Amino acid sequence: MFHTNTQHMIDYWRGKGGLGGAPVRAAIDPTEFPRLAPQALVLGRTATGLYPIRLAGGLICDLHRRDLRGLNFLSLVAERDRFELQTALEVARRRPEPVVIEIAAVTDEASLELEVLLAPLAALPGSPERFLGLYQPLSLVSRLQDAPLRELRVRTVHGVGPANEETQRLRLATLDGRRVA
Q: Residue 53 sits in which domain range?
């Protein structure tokens, strides 16, 4: 189960999608989720591992205490976690399905639990090149005492959607009334 805001954004993304594909970026309208706009972001993808931040809401910039536009999103993530997140983004892009990352966002003195949603967008149907994102704090932002986030540490990556659901396991099979498995 994800935070209600995260689930709302996943549902919004799904509602804008085409036939089993990512919605085109032109279909995304921040005025349709005004309450979540300060927590929203849009990442580009120029190559594998290069995800420049194209747009970051006010809450996100406040948490990092800087303008993030143009910065590679992976540079905000702990070095040891970058490959895992890059892999998750590339898989999400190919399927196309959202990914939700549980993150410990740390300052020099404190940490903040975050749920970060990244859902692929397409410039043209079938060609994802952007990600719609959401930073959802799961603990009190005031714990940071106005210190900037120094690093995002990945705790867990969750694929969202049918391609990530566990397939049914065969428990018992019979053939002509005899057990075979």
A: 4-179
